[in-house]
Amino acid sequence: IVSRDTHPAGSVIRVRGIPIGGEQIQVIGGPCSVETPEQMALSAQAVAAAGCRMMRGGAFKPRTSPYAFQGLGVQGLEYLQQSARQHNLPIVTELMDVRMLDTFMEYDVDVIQIGARNMQNFDLLKEVGRVNKPVILKRGLSATVSEWLMSAEYIAAGGNHNIIFCERGIRTFETAYRNVLDVTAIPVLKRETHLPVIVDPSHAGGKAWMVPALAQAAVAAGADGLLIEMHPNPCEAWCDADQALTPEELNALMKTLGAIATAV
Ligand code: PEP
Ligand code: MN
User: Fold this and answer.
1) Assembly ipTM
2) Which atom of ligand 1 sits closest to the CA of residue 117?
3) Is 199 in the pocket of ligand 1 (CB under 6 A)?
4) Cα of 116 to ligand 1 centre, how many Å?
5) Is 56 a member of any domain?
6) Ligand 1 centroid, distance to 227 Cα (angstroms)
7) Closest ligand 1 atom to 169 CA
């Protein structure tokens, strides 16, 4: 179903009318985690002011340590939705457990994110395949392109064809940055599938200063959009503080993307 052969022209996925996969580059901005109503109000304001058309924020967080902040849970969905509504921004948030799917539907989550660690959680993929909501499918930490395509096929096989691939960096021998952004995967996926491909430069580099270069490279390589972490006060972020852009940095980056997109 996801093969390019079935839709040679490429497909456009609409999130409350916003097209992903067409001519425009769509940027989803927002904090790693939903923390407080104030932090979310400032985030939504900054994301909208920078020109991003959707907002991210994690309410359920896949943390390496069980003692690290795990996300606010349902309360986080509420803060995310409240802040985003003020600026008419559709919301993107991660689903980790099939048991929360009904709650995601109740809170009217616009895009369900499947995180890297769950790319091959096949039961989770089957369940999101049954709902009528766009899904961002992040690449697994060490997943090959063909494994990634098959995971998308699991979702599509259930009837949900609204899938957006998200390259977020892969594990290699390199330790100088968090992950290696696999820019090569962008044209390869664009050739293999008709579905849109976005890039998360934040989890790839792991440092805020690397984000603009990686984001620009992704757009130059043909990405349909970006997923970028931004925090109103990065030093105080409860999660992934090192990689969060400030509102000013996000704003500056956004201004550079249009010219790159038109040049390619
Ligand atoms: C995230 O986007 O919040 C996240 C946890 O990313 P990943 O699943 O790519 O590590
Ligand atoms: Mn994060």
Assistant:
1) 0.99
2) 8
3) no
4) 6
5) yes
6) 10
7) 9
What's the domain range around 137? 25-62+69-241
CA-proximal residue: ligand 1, atom 10 (nearest): 116
Q: What is the DSSP letter of 115?
A: P
pLDDT 10s digits, 121-167:
999 999 999 999 999 999 999 999 999 999 999 999 999 999 999 99
Residue 264 has pLDDT above 90, yes or no: no
CA 254: distance to chain centroid? 16
Instruction: Specify the pLDDT at position 226.
Output: 98
Does residue 201 form part of some domain?
A: yes
Q: Indicate which CATH number applies to the domain containing 100.
A: 3.20.20.70
Residue 15 lies inside a defined structural domain of this protein: no
pLDDT digits (tens, 9 = 90+) for 223-257: 999 999 999 999 999 999 999 999 999 999 999 99
- Is the residue at 202 inside a domain? yes
H or E, element range at 113: strand 111-114
Q: Does any ligand 1 atom lie closer than 6 A to the CB of residue 203? A: yes
Label residues 154-182 b or e (16+ Cβ within 10 Å = b).
bbbeeebbbbbbbbbbbeeeeeeebbebb
**Per-residue pLDDT tens digits for 68-86:** 999 999 999 999 999 999 9
**What is the 138 CA–ligand 1 centroid distance (Å)?**
8
Domain count, the chain: 1
Q: Among all chains, which residue has been given the structure tokens 């991003």?
A: 52
Nearest atom in ligand 1 to 61's CA: 5
Ligand 1 proximity of 30 Cβ (cutoff 6 Å): no
